[in-house]
Write a structure and sequence with these properties.
heterodimer, A: alpha/beta, Aconitase, domain 4, seven-stranded mixed sheet, B: alpha/beta, Aconitase, domain 3, 2 domains, five-stranded parallel sheet, 14 helices, 31% helix
Chain lengths: 166, 419
């Protein structure tokens, strides 16, 4: 995994909870179908606008509420591999990491707008907003978490652990 | 330096003499719980096979089909069928279905003991903190890791201590205590942290009510909620036939990151207004709001005490014309007890529709969704946009008594205003 991640921002505000990301009424569908309704309570155009490599950006308390992994799974199915927010609800954060989605904490997401071209250097701990020219500091990813993400998530880690013990 | 209950439990579970907030530990899991909606069918079944792994200890695992029972359509029926068959194929004997929301079933079936580490694929797993367990919700892939290894890494949480002193006024319930706490802490004020509830209010609070408070801890973002083990816990568990576990209490010199005090005697009925659980206001302040549906049920507000209180308020009266009051007892056992004692009859005679024990209406997946422009007052735990059906609907959370009182008048109503 390169240390630089580039992509276009899909921008939302505070308290984007898991009922918004993964509305309960569609959870019975296979993930690819459910993904078409991701974010629909606040933005019905989301799934159609999402492009592989886009960066999901929110403000405070992203992913609050349910433990449902269908929230990050639907985002991943739409091609999102990186998320930036000011703060996260804890189960959602863990779910992202376990699925190999990079979840970056950045206090300055308020100045990022929809469509901004972002370049995230998660080792240096800085986000360059190429559209505005701003440099936004972000928290470096702790080593034990980066290890999981770099492997592609918890399943790959478990594979190694099980092979080692065999 | 002393330890909190959470620190003691995680020290024991990770085989260390002590643990401190901030430490990262590998904890042995005592009990794991999966439901139908986020259990085996999401990542778990497929990836466990891929890993060639087996469940580390099926005796410690419980699977409960509760969200999609009774199924509303063929897709939901397939999920329940898959869950049932997967449990059987993987040697999980503690499988329940059509028995009610998982957290009440876990407690009633004696699947949780104090001081245990319990994880579940539902955020309200924190409910078991009322029994003194360290219980937290996890995602499906995380559960896969637990099933394969019996362990989970956890950051030992800091603890917020919430002390409630005084007797609750008539008409005020544990739900009001929970909403008071969440309103004060904020919906992300306890993120990554433990909430420990104590004080004279909790010392005399029955277990049905304690379970409601611990259940709501995640609505402040908390990793877990805890009520210290005491005589009430002991008696409750003895009646269930649960022995074992580790009854911990926090040391007098344990370190808390925040200490909050509340005068429970002056607490009044509260509600959480749309669309956030910390958007808390006294019911009297919003009592003009017209409602269409009232819902009494779920792992938060469908216990025996909840239904008994609501029935006592409604007995001999009729709910307002055009209003629907839906009641879903939080388990089959509660359903049967309430039937035996005439509580369901009282509710039905007042105009309530009694439903199966299920998670359905709480998250709008069957048995009572609301339409655009409709308002529901609900004894459940979340009022997020679209939570109970239409995203143009609105949900106000309140106590079972507030739900019953509002059903009588057709408007949000403080139960103290019903004569």
């Amino acid at each position: 995994m390169s240390n630089l991640i580039c992509g276009s921002a899909l921008k939302y505000g505070d308290n984007i909870n898991t009922d918004i990301i993964s509305p309960p009424a569609y959870m019975e569908l296979p993930i690819e179908q459910a993904a078409q309704y991701a974010m629909s309570p606040v933005d019905e155009t989301f799934a159609a606008r999402c492009k592989p490599g886009d960066i999901f950006v929110a403000e405070r308390n992203l992913g609050s509420g349910s433990s449902r992994e269908t929230a990050p799974l639907t985002l991943r199915a739409l091609g999102i591999k990186t998320i930036v927010a000011q703060s996260y609800a804890r189960i959602f954060y863990r779910n992202c990491i376990n699925l190999g989605i990079l979840a970056v904490e950045c206090a300055g997401t308020g100045s990022i707008s929809e469509g901004d071209q972002l370049e995230i250097d998660y080792q240096q701990g800085v986000i360059h907003d190429r559209t505005t020219g701003e440099e936004l500091p972000c928290d470096p990813i702790p080593d034990h978490i980066m290890e999981l993400v770099a492997r592609g998530g918890l399943v790959e880690y478990l594979k190694e652990r099980i092979q080692k013990n065999a | 330096m002393g330890m909190t209950i959470s620190e003691k439990i995680l020290a024991r579970a990770s085989g260390q003499p002590s643990a401190r907030a901030g430490d990262i530990v590998w904890a042995k899991v005592d009990k794991a719980m999966m439901d139908d909606i986020l259990g085996p069918r999401v990542e778990i079944a497929e990836k466990l096979k891929l890993l060639g792994a087996k469940i580390w200890d099926p005796e410690r695992v419980t699977i409960i089909s509760d969200h999609y029972t009774p199924p509303a359509n063929a897709k939901q029926a397939e999920i329940v069928k898959f869950t049932r068959e997967w449990a059987a194929d993987n040697g999980v004997e503690h499988y329940y279905e059509f028995a009610g929301p998982c957290h009440q079933v876990m407690v009633e079936q004696g699947r949780v003991a104090p001081g245990e580490v319990v994880v579940g694929t539902d955020s309200h797993t924190c409910t078991y903190g009322a029994l003194g367990a360290f219980a937290t919700g996890i995602g499906s892939t995380e559960m896969l890791g637990v099933l394969a290894t019996g362990e989970i890494w956890l950051k030992v949480p800091q603890t917020i201590r919430l002390r409630f002193d005084g007797a609750l006024q008539p008409g005020v319930m544990a739900k009001d205590v929970a909403l008071k706490a969440i309103g004060a802490v904020g919906h992300n004020g306890a993120t990554y942290k433990a909430m420990e509830f104590c004080g004279t209010t909790f010392q005399s609070m029955i277990m049905d009510e304690r379970l409601c408070v611990a259940n709501m801890a995640v609505e402040a973002g908390a990793k877990n909620g805890l009520i210290p083990y005491d005589g009430i816990t002991q008696t409750y568990l003895r009646e269930l036939g649960v022995d074992g576990g580790y009854p911990y209490e926090s040391d007098p010199d344990a370190v808390y990151c925040q200490d909050l005090h509340f005068d429970a005697g002056s607490l009044e009925p509260l509600c959480a207004c749309p669309h956030e659980v910390d958007n808390v206001a006294p019911v009297r302040q919003v009592s003009g709001v017209a409602i269409h549906q009232a819902y009494l049920g779920s792992c938060t507000g469908g216990r025996y005490h909840d239904l008994a209180q609501a029935a006592a308020l409604l007995r001999g009266k009729k709910i307002a014309k055009g209003i629907r009051l839906l009641v879903s007892p939080a388990s089959r056992e509660i359903w049967e007890r309430c039937a035996r004692e005439g509580i369901l009859t009282s509710l039905s005679e007042a105009g309530a529709t009694v439903l199966a024990s299920s998670c359905g209406a709480c998250l709008g997946i069957h048995s009572g969704a609301i339409g655009a422009g409709e308002v529901c007052v609900s004894a459940t735990n979340r009022n997020f946009i679209g939570r109970m059906g239409s995203k143009q609907g609105q949900v106000y959370l309140g106590s079972p008594l507030t739900v019953a009182a509002s059903a009588l008048t057709g408007r949000l109503t403080d139960p103290r205003d019903i004569s």
